[in-house]
From TrEMBL:
Annotated CDD domains: AAA
Organism: Paenibacillus rigui
Protein name: AAA family ATPase
Pfam families: AAA, AAA_lid_6
Chain ranges passing through the membrane: none
Domain of life: Bacteria
GO MF annotation: an example: ATP hydrolysis activity
Alphabetical list of SMART domains matching this protein: AAA
AAA+ ATPase domain sequence ranges: 93-231
Protein family per UniProt: Belongs to the CbxX/CfxQ family.
Alphabetically ordered keywords of this record: ATP-binding, Nucleotide-binding
Amino acid sequence: MSGRVVPTDQIHITKNAHQINVVLRNPEVHVNAESEPHFHGKPLSQQGQFGEIMKELDRMVGLDQVKELVFEIYALLRIAGFRAEVGLMANTQVYHMIFKGNPGTGKTTVARIIAKLLQTMGVLNKGHLIEVERADLVGEYIGHTALKTRELVKKALGGVLFIDEAYSLARGGEKDFGKEAIDTLVKAMEDHKNQFILILAGYSNEMETFMQTNPGLPSRFPIQLDFPDYSVDQLMQIAEMMIKERDYALIPQTELKIRQQIVNEKQQTDTDTCFSNARYVRNLIEKAMRNHAVRLLNYNTQQPSKQDLMIIRPEDVRLERKAAKENYKFL
């Protein structure tokens, strides 16, 4: 039987406050569901490198909104190809993006995946990611900032320019050179239209304020994504993945200890202290691995067994939180 996909509805494009959303309604009826590769519960008709990219994203915990967006872009580009084949106009869209969320929610990883995806789909010819922050863009004298910013845009052509903590560009007042960086970026988006994608990332509230500093900014970034904090269950999934990837194992008591550490950390987080999500879990797991190694060396006079080399015990999980933002004291 053929693996052909029969569409049952059209792609609906809605516009709201200068933002374009592509939504699939009742997207497909499968003639042979098992033969069709899937991403995030939806069918794909391309394999190879594209399929691997989609698998990489689908393995990430949570991020449902992001995964939906990726499928929207994929669907739009695929349909554009079909339209071109029958002589219909295949319009291009702007893919500049805003990523909003706390640290450790996957923003940089997703930016890297999107760069590879758009290269595979023919939107970008290189698909590389240039990751920068304020210090890489802002110079020390008049004209220096524009020069530095243009050079970074040049390096990003064919790929993605990812600016973390982008809101910091607007924090220095009227005489600060950050405004010059913003103006240079806006001009570059016009001068190099469709030659690179600009992604601005940062904390949600700060990015909302930042977008209001320049009336032309919101309409230039039609795609805005929120990266919410992970739930405790999702963070436990991430912890288990990290453990498995490193050839370690957890016993139930250790899982309970890790869960309690995560719950305590999230409860202690307040408005002045950002919970660092997967970054906190990584720090916790890596510290536990070091404690595990010290414990084995201190209490074993001979070669430890394979099981001992793998098992992380509850006493290995120790990470004390300090009051300072994203600052921890390791025991």
